[in-house]
Amino acid sequence: MNVPDNLKYTNDHEWVLVEGDIATIGITDFAQGELGDIVYLDVTTVGEEIEQGEVFGTVEAVKTVSDLFMPLSGEVLEFNDLLENEPEKVNESPYEEGWVIKIKLSNVEEVNSLFSSETYKGLIGG
Amino acid sequence: MKKDWNNGILLLVEKQFSFAIPFGIIPLYLLLFSQSIMQDIKLPLHQRHEELGGKIIPFAGFLMPVRYSSDKDEHNTVREKVGIFDVSHMGEFKVTGSGSLEFLQYITSNDVSRLVPGMAQYSCLPNENGGIVDDLIVYMIDTDHYFLVVNAGNIEKDWNWISQYKNDNVVLENVSDNYCLFAIQGPLAEKTLQKLTDTPLSTIKYYHFMMGNLTGIHNVMISATGYTGAGGFEVYLPKEKALEVWNSILKVGEEFGIKPIGLGARDTLRMEMGFCLYGNDINDTTSPIEAGLGWITKFSKDFIGKAVIEKVKEQGPTKKLVGFKMQERGIPRSGYKIVDGQGNEIGEVTSGTMSPSMDVGIGLGYVKVEYMAPDTDIFIDIRNKHIKAKIHKLPLLTS
Asked: ipTM for the complex?
């Protein structure tokens, strides 16, 4: 299971790349494997301020649907346009081309609540 | 905050077929999963499925491969080439004795007297209230010798149910643990399997079977049945020989592009055909008439629940199981509400998926009868948005 060391993780199987007060968010390799083939992502919250733990969108796979949760509070700046036409990028490249949103953090302190790659590996039993 | 996954986890535990594995509850899911390892039964080929990369999930009391690579890819492999499914979780009952026919006529809805040896019949076990205990296949092996194939999650329920109705002229045996069942499905299934048998497979008509040799094993039931609409066969094997046959089929199928196929694709394949799944589309409270199973319900004979079901037919059901296709982006899921153009609830989705063959959301569900006609506009309530769909005659799969 691919769990890059340079990223932070959540209980909801999302990864976060923090750069200053901007964070890029996606779902983990484990999560995409659990979901199976992703058909589309429904993210209509660009421009909205959303609290940590609240839903910012949903991901539809062939066999299941899941909510996507904000790992950190902030404003949704951008949804990865590539996923409009190529949602399978989330399966193929969950940590790079398949990123989901970028947000502007409203509380940088919250970053401390995220898991390290080691802790996340423990969570998924890998 | 609406959490679909609260519903999902219930489905996972209570319903037979749900892969709701949403993010927030994966730890809980894994917890349930690890507990269930202790009680759920491993298939005889469990280790082989793991070696093949199968992702294993608990389903109907068994640990089953849900996918090996990708649901879409596996689905398309079956539609275009050939795939092999291990569906050994299914239950098998042997019925023998001079009272067999009379017994089966009474416990099943279809007319067993129409069978001759070598024929199979889709049927259901109605209950006294006119609901459905299970759906099943009845094989006639010989006079006074039948073979019933029932759903994995219902083996014990069915056994207890039908045992009540047997008399001394009927011998019932639950032989579920003796057999492995493989489904070889797809347009190249016949070519694949023919390499391992001298039984002339092209002569076996749909819902017929022959007892033949397979990889040198004698007396294997080779049945032209399946659950995919892609054509092919199901083979019932003594479980000690199963691994060898599985490996042989994968080997001879290599040149045809064979792949092992999981439950995920099995579900999307059957949905495209509009085949009912017990626990989703039919259950103890749905009438065969409502479920569109009138064609396997024969009032020319007596059977359990006949009077109630006949009344439903005469008076007309209030709701009916229909297939539908999404007209806008959206994927229907079991439990979603079906509404009319004004937002009034008119029914409920019982099965839904993205169709890998057509790349559109499809589903089955019950609607009030006034909405059942093909081409009727309906709306599916997906996360509080009403997404347009159209009733479509079955099968949903059109080229």
From this structure: 0.90
